[in-house]
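Why ATP-binding protein? Reviewers of the renewal asked for a concrete example.
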Amino acid sequence: MSHAVTYSATLVGLSDRVVRIEAEVSAGLPEFRLTGLPMATTGSTRDRVRAAILNSGHAWPDRRITVAVSLSEVPSYGCMLDVAIAMAILAAAGVIPAASIAHTAFVGELGLDGGLRHVRGLPSAIEALAAAGFRAIAVPVASIEHPGQRPVISATCLTDLIEQLARDTGPAEPGSPSSRTNAYHVDLADLPGDQAGKRALEISAAGGHHLLLHGHPAPAALADCLPDLLPPLDAADHSEVGEIYALANLPRRNRRRPLCTPHYSNTAATIFGLRSHGRIHPGAVSLAHAGVLFLDDAPAYALSILDGLRLPLDTGEVILADSDGIVHLPARFQLVLAASACSCGRENCRCRPAHRHRHLNRLTALRSRIAITTTAQPDDPNAAPGATTATVAARVAEARARAAYRLAGTPHRANGDIPALDLRTAHRLDPEALDPLDLPLRSGKITFAAMTQILRVAWTLADLRAAARPSKDDTHHALRLWQGAPL
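Here is what the prediction returned.
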């Protein structure tokens, strides 16, 4: 009888659990028993592992094989454990020395030909295993981008992996993550006119405010500029975003903030995500985490989707549930909505006012979360060319630095995150600065929720002009931005 132990990791939401795998090859009738995995995955895993070992040129042990996976607290599985199971069997059968895998963890799916395939959630699995103290972590060679400098062995197939372990060449050092590209997708200076939209975009970026573009001719181009105006992802956000994209099996190669633009025909599962049979499928709200979610022609989205956006906007996360349990995924993003004046889409709309009202009224559920509304104005042919993306991004960075200094010691990152209570206590405006809001509040033209958004924007306007506190003009300007009135 021979016994071997290997380790791997499996994904639960965005968290990875280190998994211990034991294999025993003993005398008795030929049999392959695999315990500890969900019933739905056991048969397919056995078949993949057996075919991979045979097609790698190794004899299948003609004895009783028992593999136990310690998944008592892990409802999710996928195919991440295939390589670890195969290596445990080969070590228990004496094909490879058990000592060669004693300090190595294995992550990856096996093809029937013995090839190692990329799996979702690989970056976070590497982090979890490295934190657990493993000397080396074996992964598929196709997984060329790993977070940080981690001890990784890259292999194309089982044979390649066994040869590397036999040579004991040690782990190869992966390359560092790609840096943010210097090339902008769209430069603000290249967009004709629409100075009101560009100014609103700058204020939105400086304070992290949600934005409604009403009647603008090229809202998609404006939205595409927003990630480049925002500061690059810091290390924590970059790692978290990378884990989400790995979970969705999507490439992620730079520190540019994500921009997700789902179509209005997408289902709620596409927007918010789905958990099914233990598999996690991130939706658009999570793929936009730490970045921008842009909804073009926002009134065309289903009301259930527009209403459902309120929870991630308020909490910064989305909750996915099925019979296997509940998973919380990050979903903290800036929302940009674009809406035409009427659903007919004609420039010279002749529809009844009631029809146009019903069209825009579909956004009522999100109106209290929108801080800035800008309405397209006629272009001035004599206007000077606008600032470049680089120039505006520099102003945004300076404003965010002032806000970060003021918010130091709090969990808030930007003015758009400041709670209503703090705006009335620690960040309370001078009485004179509040004068423009007195009459609209008394007359019911603005609510307390709207007042919160206005005060947040007032602080951002002060930061953009390097002022210590918002002035009366800042508050009046913020009120006009909330109303969508011409400036």
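The longest strand covers residues 15-26. This is the kind of structural detail the renewal will allow us to pursue systematically.
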